Amino acid sequence: MFLNQYQHSFDDKGRLTIPSKLRELPTEGAFVVQGLDRNLMVLPPAVFEIIYNRLMAMSMTDPSARLLRHIILGNALQVVPDGAGRILISPNLREFAGLHNEVVFVGQGDYFEIWSPKLWQEQQVQINDAATNAQRFATLDLTTR
Question: Would you tell me how many other CB atoms lie within 10 Å of the CB of residue 79?
Fold first, then answer.
């Protein structure tokens, strides 16, 4: 399970070290895809396969389905961390997410995200809005017993 937040930077060769707490990836690595909020999503193969199968079940005559395929599959990158847990992210994905030197890794349970610190800070403003959160959570049953 991928949890918490971690800050890291790209090395001189453009490699990004995955935090040790997020290295639960299988030996075949993971898939990096465009996220929904100008971020990147790093999906283990089993999670990517679920999304892939759903996308492929959609009709290619549907313009929205084609757009989703372009966004997710047209930019997907399979990565396998090296012995030090480093991955290379393609220039098009780095540009999409505004990644330069520093990044923020954010655990999301079954997968994790990679954010530019600037965009993550903007996201934090929304996350920390108490009044809006009261409305968001009103319909969510958070009962623990």
Answer: 18
Mean pLDDT of 23-46: 92
From the candidate CATH numbers 3.10.20.340, 3.30.590.20, 3.40.1550.20, 2.60.40.1120, the one assigned to the domain spanning 5-117: 3.40.1550.20
Distance, CA of 1 to CA of 76 (rounded, Å): 22
Average pLDDT over residues 22-42: 91
Task: Kindly tell me the number of DSSP H helices and DSSP E strands found in the chain.
Answer: 5, 8
How many whole angstroms separate alpha carbon 23 and alpha carbon 18?
6
Kind and range of the H or E run holding 53: helix 45-57
d(CA 11, CA 15): 5
Please tell me the pTM assigned to this model: 0.90
pLDDT in tens, 48-101: 999 999 999 999 999 999 999 999 999 999 999 999 999 999 999 999 999 999
Per-domain residue ranges of the chain: 5-117
